Automatic annotation (TrEMBL), chain A:
GO molecular function: allantoinase activity; dihydroorotase activity; metal ion binding
Domain (Dihydroorotase catalytic) ranges: 53-239
Protein name: Dihydroorotase
A cellular component term, taken from the record's GO annotations: cytoplasm
Keyword match Nuclease: no
Keyword Electron transport: no
Key words, A-Z: Pyrimidine biosynthesis
InterPro entries in UniProt: DHOase (IPR004722), DHOase/Allantoinase_Hydrolase (IPR050138), DHOase_cat (IPR024403), Metal-dep_hydrolase_composite (IPR011059), Metal_Hydrolase (IPR032466)
GO biological process, one term: pyrimidine nucleotide biosynthetic process
Domain of life, source organism: Bacteria
TrEMBL record, chain B:
A GO molecular-function annotation: aspartate carbamoyltransferase activity
Protein name: Aspartate carbamoyltransferase
Binding sites annotated in the UniProt record for carbamoyl phosphate: R72, T73, R122, H152, Q155, G281, P282
Residue ranges annotated for the Aspartate/ornithine carbamoyltransferase Asp/Orn-binding domain, each copy included: 172-318
Gene Ontology CC terms, in alphabetical order: cytosol
Residue sites binding L-aspartate per the record: K100, R185, R240
Subunit structure, interactors included: Heterododecamer (2C3:3R2) of six catalytic PyrB chains organized as two trimers (C3), and six regulatory PyrI chains organized as three dimers (R2).
Family in the record: Belongs to the aspartate/ornithine carbamoyltransferase superfamily. ATCase family.
Biological process (GO), any one: amino acid metabolic process
Signal peptide: none
Length: 425, 322
């Protein structure tokens, strides 16, 4: 199967490419970029990408596919469909499934299920501790052999600092990445909104910023001591960004990401108890949001993730604190990144790197660029097409997002995984 | 989208700007609050008559939906509705359908299918009344009788009604709210009602563990000591202290709390000589208030209860008329 994509604007930050050209694909790989086909190239399919942008398929660091165990919220099939509809061709999925991804057999099964659907590449993140209970280490090396690319505690607490330290030491023995979302379990206990003016007005139990920074301080100190390859998930506060920036300036090789919702929204968006804005970590102040944007701009924050967590409608139709946290995100990752780029007036190539080469580097996988010979994972989108975020427009089984009912710019037209068109919009 | 203010699209008002639901005192214009107070004034007479009934809500069905136990508030709403000649149904949902796993909105849907005209809702979660109001058919009215820590607007309205009865003009008053502001829906609603009605100085007095973050953004002055906070105030609004505050490490003991924040005659003497003392009830004597003050001549705690019925009659009749 040979495919030619004609006349699109190719943007590949990693290879410093930004220009209108053709993309030639053969045997699932990028054969060439440019205007001249490789010698003897005969296309079976031609895609006209005039006025469209061709970029590497998006790489998402935080998607909950809800399989195994939580299929009533979403199935692998529905969410893989959502991923490619959003231009996402590689995704890391968190271990907080039911049962937890803490055994090689479960990981293999998930990889097998994902492969059989023949859509995006799925990279399981293994549980750092058995059952995510924060007590005993998992068989990390075995889990890696089964396909795990890193290890995390998901949103489950790890209050025992000795276990955390030893988990980092053990992981670093093999060079495995440890992914942690910094949150102190006691300081965050019961909280559902940022400890600020809005929670005060609405009478919502609050999560103070120090719930993030106290935990962050522990993690940074232990990363320094153990030399572990730590990735920080979904940073939410200005103070947190400043601490990570300082740690990096000291030469620590930690990385971090931010959720797309947090790049745009603040506590103010909760309005009158909008449960679609019940997210973890909570939406914080406007100052925090601006610091997250600035952190992305100066490379303190390496990646934007979808924080995809589909929630069924019934679980959102409850008073704010009782409503389940989370939002669907895979199909909003691209438009929300474009919106950030437009608002900050930064070049598209720099913005797209936060959802392609940046996260690919953290995952440690060959993705996020369009070098000849690489897997032909591509996202082809219309940067000027507006679309309305509503239930009908979303493939994900979760229809809940703070952006419900809004118009966003940027719609995926084609998604290719290993050279095959897996989505046409 | 972040510049969408909290006040936009007020869910309490209908498209003509009239009160559709009473969910919170926040964001209600002063004329609406004053109209409720004036209407309540006319109902005080009714409650003092031999035949304590007017036919304003004859044929209307009012459902008291209490998802959280309450005797006093539910009773005053029931009396208010009956004095307006409405049919009243009391439901204590805490012990019925919720324990069978029915969701809040399922319960409400079932009841509205029984042709309710008005719901009076109390729930332990902030935002529950907003959720129900948003879900309702437009002809149904919702009154928030207390949601979590968020709001208790009829309590705040009866408090300002009581204040107006004893102090003529809101615009030269100094009011202190004392106690557990953090967990208090009453305090939040009082603050918004008082500031909207033009009270120039509203103070909150509490230890830092009982004050929410940035409470000063609600337009209040923050004090941590009674000696300073009570100086020259015209009105003292005491709040109930729940025992579980000790368990959550917010306070060391009721004894220490009473010593530093409990209202005694000596502390009351710091306020103006004609200051009045309010309490939303039920009181913890010897914790937030001394019996000598609660039963003393500056206390208006029992009149509050009486006025509560008139204020709730006013709210119900105004909503039914809009």
């Amino acid at each position: 199967m040979k495919t030619i994509i004609r006349n699109g604007r190719v943007i590949d930050q990693k290879n410093r490419i930004d220009g209108v050209m053709d993309v030639f694909i053969a045997s699932g790989k990028i054969a060439a970029l440019g205007t001249e086909p490789p010698h003897g190239f005969q296309a079976d399919r031609e895609i006209d990408a005039t006025n469209l942008i061709i970029c590497p398929g998006l790489v998402d660091l935080s998607a909950r596919l809800r399989e195994p165990g939580l299929e009533y919220k979403a199935t692998l099939e529905s969410e893989m469909g959502a991923a490619v509809a959003g231009g996402v061709t590689s995704l890391a999925c968190a271990p907080d499934t039911d049962p937890v991804l803490d055994e090689p057999g479960l990981v293999e099964m998930l990889k097998h299920r994902a492969r059989s659907l023949n859509q995006a590449h799925v990279y399981p993140i293994g549980a750092l501790t058995r059952g995510l209970k924060g007590e005993w280490l998992t068989e990390m090396a075995e889990l890696r052999d089964a396909g795990c690319v890193a290890f995390s505690q998901s949103d489950k607490p790890l209050p025992n600092t000795r276990v955390m330290m030893q988990a980092m030491q053990y992981a670093s023995t093999f060079g495995f990445g440890v992914w942690l979302r910094p949150q102190d379990v006691y300081l965050a206990d019961g909280g559902v909104a940022h400890d600020g003016e809005v929670a005060t007005r609405l009478g919502l139990p609050a999560v103070p910023v120090c719930a993030e920074t106290v935990a962050l301080s522990n993690i940074i100190l232990m990363a320094k001591e153990t030399g572990a390859k730590v990735h920080l998930c979904r940073i939410s506060s200005a103070e947190g960004v400043a601490m990570i920036r300082a740690a990096r300036q000291q030469g620590l090789s930690i990385t971090c990401d931010v959720a797309a919702n947090h790049v745009h929204l603040s506590e103010m968006d909760i309005g009158f108890f909008d449960s679609n804005c019940h997210l973890v970590p909570p939406l914080r102040s406007l100052g925090d949001r601006d610091a997250l944007r600035a952190g992305l701009l100066d490379d303190t924050i390496d990646a934007i993730c979808s924080d995809h967590a589909p929630v069924d409608d019934d679980a959102k139709l409850l008073p704010f604190a009782e409503a389940e946290a989370g939002a669907t995100g895979l199909e909003l990752l691209l438009p929300l990144t474009l919106k950030w780029a437009a608002e900050m007036k930064i070049p598209l190539s720099a913005a797209l790197s936060r959802i392609t080469s940046g996260p690919a580097r953290i995952l440690g996988v060959e993705a996020g660029h369009l070098s000849p010979g690489a897997d032909a994972d591509l996202c082809i989108f219309d940067p000027a097409q507006y679309w309305r975020v509503d239930a009908a427009a979303l493939k994900s089984q979760g229809k809940n997002t703070p952006f419900l009912g809004m118009e966003l710019e940027g719609r995926v037209k084609y998604t290719l995984v290993s050279g095959l068109v897996v989505h046409e919009g | 989208m972040t510049d969408v203010g909290i006040m936009s699209n007020n869910p309490q008002l209908n498209k003509n700007g009239l009160l559709q639901h009473l969910l919170t005192t926040e964001g209600l214009p002063a004329p609406i609050l004053l109209n409720i107070l004036d209407t309540a004034e006319s109902f005080v007479g009714v409650t003092e008559r031999d035949v304590k009934k007017v036919p304003l809500l004859r044929g209307k069905s009012i459902f008291n939906l209490f998802f959280e136990p309450s005797t006093r508030t539910r009773t005053t709403f029931e009396i208010a509705a009956k004095r307006l000649s409405a049919d009243v149904v009391n439901l204590n949902i805490a012990v019925s359908s919720q324990s069978k796993g029915e969701t809040l909105l399922d319960t409400v849907d079932n009841l509205s299918a029984m042709h309710a005209d008005m719901f009076v809702v109390r729930h332990s979660q902030s935002g529950a009344a907003h959720l129900i109001a948003r879900h309702m058919r437009p002809e149904i009215h919702v009154i928030n009788a207390g949601d979590g820590r968020h709001a208790h607007p009829t309590q705040a309205l009866l408090d300002v009604f009581t204040i107006r009865r004893y102090k003529s003009d809101f615009r030269n008053l100094r009011v202190a709210i004392v106690g557990d502001i953090l967990h208090s829906r009453v305090a939040r609603s009082q603050i918004h009602a008082l500031t909207t009605l033009g009270v120039p100085e509203v103070r909150v007095i509490a230890p830092k563990t009982l004050l929410p973050t940035k409470v000063e953004r609600l337009g209040v002055h923050v004090y941590h000591e009674m000696t300073q906070g009570l100086k020259d105030v015209d009105v003292l609004m005491m709040l109930r202290l729940q025992n579980e505050r000790m368990l959550s490490a917010r306070l060391p003991s009721t004894e220490e709390y009473f010593k530093y924040y409990g209202l005694t005659q000596e502390k009351l003497a710091l306020a103006k000589h004609d200051a009045i003392v309010l309490h939303p009830g039920p009181m913890n004597r010897g914790v937030e208030i001394d019996s000598a003050v609660a039963d003393g001549k500056q206390s208006v705690i029992l009149p509050q209860v009486t006025f509560g019925i008139a204020v709730r009659m006013a709210v119900m009749s105004i909503l039914a008329g809009n």
